[in-house]
Design a protein that fits this description.
Two copies of one chain form a homodimer. Chain A has four helices and five strands. By secondary structure, the first copy, chain A, is an alpha/beta fold.
Chain lengths: ~150, ~150
């Protein structure tokens, strides 16, 4: 019985497409959608950022910006759920996308993860985006539905 | 709206697990299951089989055996569907598994393909079985649900 579906999003076109599929499926199943958006700290926590006062000035506004973006992406899915009478919940978390998805899937005890075949990565020509590849590769036993983009 | 689900099987434990998941989901969705079993001709059409009368004697019984096995695997899924009040259909086809799955998905206009992460391959330690990998990699736009084994 599928009652809870995790839908990670990075705001990409592929993520939007997979979210639409997820909301349709959730509606048909009367399941709850958990919209997950991850603040990917790798994007600004490079080894090259010097420690000290200056880096704080630089990092905080970036972190704020990324959090706002993440909230926006997950919010879009929530809106889509509301429009379709599907129960939903937003989760914003920080970390490595693959780890964050697997951790959240376990924490919220979802029965299914729905993801796009590609995210924002420049390697979109590869057969699978690195995040989707990573989640499939992980030890998690939760089934994954891959929506092609 | 998911109304038709393709469930390829090679009779492996992983395929059985994905079939159980598929039947549960189909029941919840009131969808039809198409159980697909493929006679993989690669397994006996090696380049080393000599042409002529002798090869016929060898090949025909093998082909019969593989067909019988394929019918058995798909039949198991049909039984599971019957037990759960899920409509189903059996398709037996010959060819390369990846090509056959993609072709059948298009022909029967399914909305979803459900597969195990690994099939019978000896490379089960790899992150994805070669057939599942192949179907995800293919140009088909049909979503794929991967059940972990």
């Amino acid at each position: 019985m599928i009652s809870k579906i995790l839908v990670p999003t990075d705001g990409s076109r592929a993520a939007r497409k997979s979210a639409m599929y997820a909301v349709d499926l959730a509606k048909q199943l009367k399941a709850t959608v958990i919209a997950l958006s991850i603040i990917d700290k790798r994007s600004f926590m490079g080894q090259t950022v010097p420690a000290g006062k200056t880096s704080r000035h630089v990092i905080e506004p970036i972190e704020d910006y990324l959090r706002e973006a993440a909230e926006g992406y997950a919010g879009e899915i929530k809106k889509l759920c509301d429009k379709n009478g599907v129960q939903s919940k937003i989760v914003i978390t920080a970390g490595h996308p693959v780890e964050a998805i697997v951790k959240e899937a376990a924490r919220t005890k979802v029965n299914l993860i729905i993801m796009g075949s590609h995210g924002k990565s420049a390697l979109a020509v590869a057969f699978l985006g690195s995040v989707t590849y990573g989640v499939i590769h992980k030890e998690t036993k939760i089934p994954i539905l891959v929506v092609k983009s």
